[in-house]
Amino acid sequence: MYLRGKGVPLDYAKTPSWFQKAADQGYMYAQAELGFIYENGWGVSQDYVQAHMWFNLAAAREDMAVMCTLAAKERDKVAAIMTPDQIAEAQRLAREWMQSHPSRR
């Protein structure tokens, strides 16, 4: 809602925390949106490692094929401007998230 100003004033500062809560619950849409938030620096510092991690987690899901495809394309787009070390860090963070949230995949 805050990301697009639907029903509430547009507020990028409030957006990340709400999507973070949903993403940590395993909602793929929220995981992909966090990828966009970090990729574009909407309410957070732009962070390609975090963007890649969240896109990677969303792309790994099988419950919504269209969103998985979009997340995978965005992950690959972000990866194209990252260093190999940044990509490795993003992949490590995604693995750690999956290990700490086994029922949320």
Terminal CA distance reads 24 Å
Subunit arrangement of the protein: single chain
Give a short account of the largest sheet.
none
How many β strands by DSSP?
Answer: 0
Instruction: Give the proportion of residues in helices.
Output: 55-70%
Q: What is the H-and-E element order? A: HHHHH
Strand content: under 5%
Kindly name the structural category.
mainly alpha
Whole-number count of domains:
1
Helix count equals: 5
Q: Give the CA-based shape.
A: globular
Task: Please give the radius of gyration in angstroms.
Answer: 13 Å
Please tell me the overall pLDDT.
86
Give the low-confidence spans: none
Structure description:
This protein is an all-alpha fold. It has one domain. It is built from 5 helices and no strands. The mean pLDDT is 86.
Q: Which key features would you list for this structure?
A:
mainly alpha; 105 residues; globular
